[in-house]
Amino acid sequence: MDLKPLGDVVDQWKEIASKLSDLANEARTGMRRKSEAARWQGVNADVTRPFIRSVADEFEDARVEAGDFHQEIGNAYRSLKSIQGDLKAIVDAAHGKGIVIEDIGGGKVRCFDPPEPGHQDEVLSEERRKELTTIAEEVSGLVGRARARDAYTSDLLAVIHGNDPHNFAKNGQIDSWEARRGLKLARKGPGMSTKELREFNRFLKYNHNDPDFTQAFFKGMGGPKETLEFYARMSIDGTGSKGKVRLDAVQGLQRYLGPALANATDPDHKGYLNWGPEFRKIGAKEIQLDGFMYAPKGYQLLSGILRYGHYDKRFLLPIAEHVTQLQHDHPRGYWSRPSGPDQKFGFDPNGERTSGYDPVTGILEALGHSPAAAEDFFSKDPGNNPAYAYDEEGRQDRTKPLDYGYLSELTSDGYKWNNDAASPVQGERHMPGKDSLGHALEAAATGAPHDRPADERVPGHTPERAEIVKALMREVGENPGFATEDVSDSLGRIAGEYMPEINKAMVVGGDGRAGGIFQVEHATSFGKVDTVRFLDAVGRHPEGHAEATLGAQNYQTKVMHELVEHPERFDGTTRQNLLAAAHSTGSVEGVLGSARHESIVARGQQEEADFNAAVEKRGELAKEVLGFPLGALAERVPVAGDLVSGATDGIVDSVVESHRKNTLENDMADGAEVSFDTRTEAEKWAQRAARAAGVPPGVDETDFVRDVAQSTARGYEHGKSLRDDAFDNKTRRLDD
Fold this sequence. Notes:
globular, two-stranded antiparallel sheet, mainly alpha, 4 strands, single chain
């Protein structure tokens, strides 16, 4: 579809709106002002003056209508253009792989490989079938988004126009009309039909970034307490027994209500709603819901909304601190749950393993989407940057500094994670709260939301963020049992992002010449022992190991490209520096690989299969974008042509293959032996990365590639030794 005509229409309506604005101003300041100042007599006073007022008002209505047309058509154009760009990228990539995409009607497509002579009866592999299905679903999903945007805009333009040939629409600004319509629906609460609820969701979806809409809407709700009551009734309605269709609609409400609240409470917006103090005041109080025997606390309801949206730290941080302090003071039984036979309902409709009764989990999810708040939250330290106590009603007492920081509090062995109904009890394998903590830590460490698009670059490593990671490494090193399956993937991603600092800490001599090739943007140095213990804890879990391994090997590739393409930026010869890079990454692999080896020995062959599956899954995600976690060299390392032209898939496949070991048919000793061969695979990876970067001038390729492998092997053994030296003894580590 050619969207240029729609873009032209946007420009035309901009011009029309501008001209009508001038005319309306002339009518208001000229004709109407003169009419109001004139001394009318007789019939003219009763007829002419009101007529002139009416004409002036009509010019104003025309201005408003034209402005709304320009705004909404512009919104539609930008949205459709973005969707079309995503669609073209997917389709072009599919065509590049020889995949045919066929329209089957109704906004759906199917994908297939074109038949080849002699291959008509060939059976598709499961991997290929999955790839074709995924592409078809992605394409159909984008087409569905375009259809929804088109329908919404079409309906809205009809409202703006008003369908009266003799009168411009009397709705006022469309933002206000949408807010009024949204409020009219919201006041029905669970009485909204599913069709009406979807209409309500569309208002939130397409206007959650508009302060005029969000402020008008939440003001109309009545206040913080009324907003929480509305959300509670809708959440219970959707998570009850009304079926999947209703649940899907309520899930949409949760996803869009949060971002709308984030916009309405943003202090950078004129007229923002300063609701933070009131939310804190009612956060620890029970809110009685009509016809419902169970009375949840305010924070249990608010945390369900806050799970979605990017919140300003001035709003979110005091709430996050208050909730964490309440949990610290009341470790058990403070956040109640309903009793009785039917506990399906909850306050997190989108939750897969949570019901939303533990507000700490929801608040941590909010921090995971709000990096500035997360950074401030985890920077609190009793020594240099103390947090201050809040009373029960959320009032801060600046005379009472806390004797703990939130990072140490939430990572301590004694922290009591709440049972969130759908989640297991303390001590069982899965802890959703720790998963959310990992998301918050990612946001604090990277300066970006944890679920940002995979191809979106993260901000640089500031001293403040690096200090948080340094403190996290220390906490995990002292309490390795914290790094359970739920949080290990996030810890692995943080390790992958901070590979420049990790490599610098791992090199022989710590801050010697070899460390100079790992360029960082701050003066914070990671301790070697803490770094090794952190990698050991992460490497013991499949997803954490996968994230850290791919991050390490990706960073090695980027560093080697930088060393070859810009040798003038580094001391020493290019050959020396490339071998140093291989040695350092080998050391990282030595820690991760031996941690994986020990975990498999301790837990059995199934653990090996779990490691393989996690690496393979992470590899598939990595193929969606060019590169993996980027680190400090993100802006400086030019990606070589061979990577751009398709070698990315090959590099990822190499990593995956190097870790795909099937030991289920072997005994435990054989499985451990195979796992231990990751050193050889690390050598192969380093050789591949070196070849991709390019052999230095005047160096024999065969000798150089052999030297890279040997340097990696020495680094691997060095990493294993560092790991052994970082602990008192192996027995304690195995027990942990």
